[in-house]
Amino acid sequence: MSTITPARIAILLVIAAAAGGSWWYVKRPAAADEFRLTGNVDFRQVSLPFNGNDRIREILVEEGATVTRGQVLARLDRDRLKAQVDQAQAMVAAQRAVVDRLHNGSRPEEVAQARANLASARADAVNARAQLQRRRTLADRAAASQQDLDTAEATAAVADAKVEVNNRALELAIAGPRREDIAQAEAQLNGNIAQLALVQRQFADTELVSPIDGIVRSRLMEPGEMASPTRPVFSLAQIRPKWVRTYISETRLGQIRPGLRVSVVSDSFPDRTFGGWIGFISPVAEFTPKTVQTEDLRTSLVYEVRAFVEDPDDQLRLGMPATVRLAPAAEATGSAAAPARQP
Predict the structure, then answer these.
(1) Which H or E run includes 303?
(2) What is the pTM of this model?
(3) Is CATH 2.40.50.100 correct for 47-77+208-234?
């Protein structure tokens, strides 16, 4: 059996004294000049509804689950919107083909066909003119009637008109589509693309995505229910930043400022002190009486203060009571050069 030496006794006494000193520092009563504020842990919350109206198909998370930004939390039924997306994509493809055809203009085969039609019309016109000349010669000899002459003249005029028509058709084939027709087709294509984007956005909205890193506080709807933009499906609590919401009297308001370092202690973690800083001091006073009529009542004025807390291990919970400790009054008002910290 080992003997207890004086050196070991001294070491044990030092350890006990250090432990007792640490416990006293955490639990010690507030000194006259020590500044303490009490309040509750608070952080931002998000009510998350679907951006559409349809029946909920599945819910993917439960209360208390930790979620990350971009994580899918729930889905709506999407069969109807999927058919609309397919239809819009087909309309875009068809209209894009029309625009491409107009930009490409007439095919060489179409120009060649127009030339052939013009050549045929010219041949018919030459033949009609020859027939007309023969009818005139016969009419001069009284060998042809006036009706035959009129018919030949009309046939020649029709043949000349067909030549002009086919000539214009060839010019149009060479020139290609009008700029106005191309602009109209492009405008229709842009409208179809916009409609496709709208339907795709509606299809994407069938998935409810977390906008923050946080914790699911409440699951408010279940599969089979009809969702709408006015009915939240989840209530999310943001993990960071966290702060202690507390109040300070008007008489001590001058002893704090934004950026002042503080320490935060919670009853749930008596052996741990959380660092923090004063991040917000309300510019509006609150007080118990509705009107201030005397100088004595002015001491009842209080201002909301938010002391932001450094909690990397995510131990503090919403609504948890906490105590904010500030430096003594002299130090709190004298260290004006302390840098401000932002949440």
Answers:
(1) strand 302-309
(2) 0.58
(3) yes
Q: What is the residue type of 218?
A: S
pLDDT tens string 2-24: 556 666 666 666 666 665 555 55
CB atoms within 10 A of CB 208: 24
- Quick one: how far is CA 143 from the chain centroid? 92
Rounded CA gap, 275 and 259, in Å? 12
Average pLDDT for residues 275-294, to the nearest whole number?
Answer: 71
**Sign (positive or negative) of CA dihedral 96, 97, 98, 104:** positive
Alpha helices by DSSP H, the chain: 6-27, 79-104, 108-140, 146-175, 179-204, 329-334
Query: How do residues 210-255 score in pLDDT, each as one tens digit?
Result: 998 888 989 999 999 999 999 999 999 888 888 898 888 877 888 8
- Cα separation, 296 vs 288, in Å, equals 13
338 close to 261: Cβ distance less than 8 angstroms:
yes
CATH number of 30-43+239-334: 2.40.30.170
For the chain, the first-to-last Cα distance in angstroms comes to: 57
For residue 250, give the DSSP letter.
G
Pinpoint the alpha helices (H) of 265-340: 329-334
Domain locations along the chain: 30-43+239-334, 47-77+208-234, 85-201
Q: Is 101 exposed, middle or buried (0-12, 13-18, 19+ CB in 10 A)?
A: middle
Sign of CA dihedral 212, 213, 216, 221: positive
Indicate if the pLDDT at residue 54 is higher than 80: yes
Q: Decide: 326 and 257 in contact? Cβ < 8 Å.
A: no
pLDDT attached to residue 336: 38
Sign of torsion, CA 93 96 101 104?
A: negative
User: Which letter does DSSP use for residue 338 in this model?
Assistant: P
Q: Collect all residues with Cβ–Cβ distance below 8 Å to 298 and sequence separation of at least 6.
A: 250, 292
Contact by Cβ (8 Å): 46, 235: yes
Classify 227 as helix, strand or coil: strand
Looking at every residue in the chain, the average pLDDT score rounds to: 78
Once rounded to an integer, what is the mean pLDDT over residues 107-134?
74
What distance in Å separates the CA atoms of residue 160 and residue 125, rounded to the nearest whole number?
6
